[in-house]
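Model it.
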Amino acid sequence: QCAERIPEAEAVLDLLEKCPEHQKKGGFPVIVFEGLDATGKTTVTQAVKDTLNGVLLRSPPPCISQWRTVFDDEPTPIKRAFYAAGNYILASEIAKASTQAPVIIDRYWHSTAAYTIATETSGKVQDLPPAQDEVYQWPEDLLKPDLVLLLTVDPEERVRRLQHRGLEKTKEEAELEANSLFRQR
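Modeled.
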């Protein structure tokens, strides 16, 4: 429905439609690295890829990442749909790559879920859904990794690293900086 307003939506849906419905992992391990910007994901994923002679994939996948800024400016449900579609497109790439080599992934479903939960929850951290809530459950139809590692770094060090990069702040980063409650969630 939003293709008239957002022409890129049709291209994303076309890519999603080409993905097999149930992705099956190949024989090689699939390892996901999660974490906020400037926690070392790029450095670590590259080193692990090189060490394991693996394949490095990122979320959102390159075939749709050029439209990220378009969707980031859209209302939350549309933005969320873009990142969810990206996870399924990435799963298709993971399935194919994991038949040839170990797969290292820079962000996946966890980042999408964490951001969604943090933005949909109002109030304090105690107001988050309880640990057993279905919102935390892995989608049954999404290819599951073998291992997920969360990289963290001291908040001051993370900010220093971001400033050292000299890049423009993303909306998410501005929100994290301005809203400590959002960061905690």
